[in-house]
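Listing S7. Sequence submitted for prediction.
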Amino acid sequence: MSTQAADIRPTWEEITYRRGRNDLAWLFISAFSDGRLRDEDYCRALQDAWTGPDSPMAYADEMIWELLFRNVDFLVEDEESTCPLTGPTILYRGCSPDRLNRMSWSERPEVALSFAERYRRQGFDAHVWAAEFESDKALARFTKARPGENEWVMEPLAGEALAKAWIHMRLG
């Protein structure tokens, strides 16, 4: 007979049952903060929380998300892994200047262009930006949740790195 106590905490599937994708970020943050999230569900829940909602940044700021991602070495889809970057790499982001320090970047400029165009239609002064990142700034990579986006989650640009970002493609 096993002496291990059964884990009575709900599974991630039970926590998210009959909830919409825009609920996933706050459900994850709440379950993690309250100690209700099972260790074995952490990576899957983090992936869902980041890739499910339209804007996961609406639920927590950059510092909180960075801490949540740093609980694992590096996240590839829903599994802990090692970062595939071996040196500096250039990534792209379609946004207005005030959102340049956000965490979602793409390896494909055409993906960034689609975001920049969407923001321009909403009245923002958006362009396709490029920035060089060191591999230690990478937190996660998602290619399956939103096919074609090839999303990299990176530490927010700050200081000199933010100042060195450049407009790769100016719109309008």
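Caption to Listing S7: primary sequence and predicted structure tokens for the chain studied. The two ends are 70 Å apart (CA to CA). The longest strand covers residues 89-95.
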